[in-house]
Amino acid sequence: MARLPHILVVDDQHSIRLMLESGLSLSGFRVSCARNGAEALAAASTEEFDAVISDVYMPDGDGLTMVQELRALLPSLPIVLMTAKALSSWLSGQSKRARRISSPNHLK
Phi first, then psi: what are they for 34, rounded to 5°? Predict the structure, then answer.
């Protein structure tokens, strides 16, 4: 039997995790969920993932910090960031940081 691609979903809101887990599972993915960056980093250090989908805003820290730490562990891991917040000033200030962190060659 072929190995299903394994996706890590990271979001502090249960309803968002459940929606993504359901949709991805129905689409043929194996899904693990984490409620915050600390749980995501712990999971990434013990399990193999093919991609991560993460919220940007979480109570224990922003998703960009988690991405930076994930990049140190797994430089080529595809990561998709999402947010429901439309704070253009925050996003414009963070876009440079996000581009820098998202580059696998940035952290060596």
Answer: -135, 145
- For residue 108, is pLDDT > 50? no
The pTM score is 0.80
CATH code reported for the domain at 6-102: 3.40.50.2300
The whole-angstrom separation of Cα 18 and Cα 35 is: 11
Tens of pLDDT along 32-66?
999 999 999 999 999 999 999 999 888 777 778 88
- Domain regions of the chain by residue span: 6-102
**What burial class does residue 46 get, using C-beta atoms within 10 Å of its C-beta: 0-12 exposed, 13-18 middle, 19+ buried?**
exposed
